[in-house]
Design goal:
This protein folds into two domains: about 15-105, no CATH class; about 145-250, no CATH class. About 40% of the residues lie in helices and about 15% in strands. It is built from nine helices and seven strands; from the N terminus they run αααααααββββββαβα. The chain has a four-stranded mixed β-sheet with strand order 6-5-1-7. It has a three-stranded antiparallel β-sheet with strand order 2-4-3, with no helix packed on it. β3 (about 170-175) and β4 (about 180) form a beta hairpin. α2 (about 30-35) packs across α3 and α7 packs parallel to α8. The longest helix is centred in the middle third of the chain and has 28 residues, at about 115-145. The termini are far apart.
């Protein structure tokens, strides 16, 4: 038996390389990153939007969704390779704190966080990112169809996401008997393709935000297939007048 300690960096989850080899030519993450607004001040930017998005997505796929995991994985031989950074190159991938700020579109404007100007910039970027993400998913769905769909079923549902500690926006929900977030999802009823998803606070009403998101999805569908039949399927949480009125206006059932 011969033992050596001078070998190059090794990885234990090389399966992500095959996934990256499939995703990169399709340009999925690159296209999405190019559409996301980035309110950060350019002089302070070390990691591009595409690199941050790639790092976060592949951490989730590797079963390491927490921001703290980035402090270890940023130096792993695999993750710099996935993000097109040499394993021993500089700068390294984003730290856990940097990656945790990315989804919230935190800017750096030379002033203290919490001031009105900073909050307005951040909230505007968050809203725009959500809309761009939903448009991106709709475009991907339509581009993968050989012919425009003639009928679409929009599956709309909420999912409880239990939380621990005192995370921002986490709240106690009496129906579920727990502290959680209550994200809302929209899927294609036939294929399961995700049309939209957005995070909501734990005490949100089931219909919160549904009208605006569904209307935007329907507009995308109508643009490519004016005659497409669009049906919505949801539980009683969406049985509110605003949802019914929007369905009649958009031609949904």
């Amino acid at each position: 038996m011969e033992v050596t300690f001078d070998q190059g960096p090794l990885v234990s989850d090389a399966g992500l390389l095959a996934l990256r080899a499939l995703e990169r030519p399709l340009g999925i993450l690159a296209d999405l990153a190019a559409q996301l607004p980035d309110p950060r001040a350019p002089p302070f930017v070390r990691h591009s939007t595409e690199r941050l998005l790639t790092q976060q997505v592949y951490q989730v796929l590797a079963g390491c969704p927490d921001g703290n995991d980035a402090d270890r994985l940023r130096h792993d031989a695999l993750f710099p390779l996935l993000a097109a950074v040499p394993p021993d190159g500089e700068p390294a991938l984003a730290s856990g704190s940097t990656l945790a700020r990315f989804p919230y579109a935190y800017p750096r404007r030379g002033q203290r966080q919490g001031q009105p100007e900073v909050l307005l910039v951040r909230r505007a970027a968050q809203r725009e990112r959500r809309q761009r993400r939903h448009d991106f998913l709709a475009d991907r769905f339509l581009r993968t169809r050989v012919t425009p769909p003639t009928e679409i079923i929009l599956e709309v549902d909420a999912t409880d996401d239990p939380s621990h500690g005192h995370q921002a926006l986490s709240g106690y929900h009496g129906c579920y008997g727990q502290h959680h977030y209550l994200p809302r999802w929209v899927f294609d009823g036939a294929s399961g393709f995700p049309w939209a998803c957005w995070l909501r606070h734990g005490t949100a009403h089931p219909s919160q935000g549904a009208v605006d998101v569904l209307r935007r999805v329907v507009q995308k569908l109508r643009a490519v297939g004016p005659e497409v039949v669009i049906n919505g399927r949801a539980d009683s949480g969406l049985a509110v007048p605003a949802v019914y009125d929007s369905g009649q206006q958009d031609g949904r059932r």
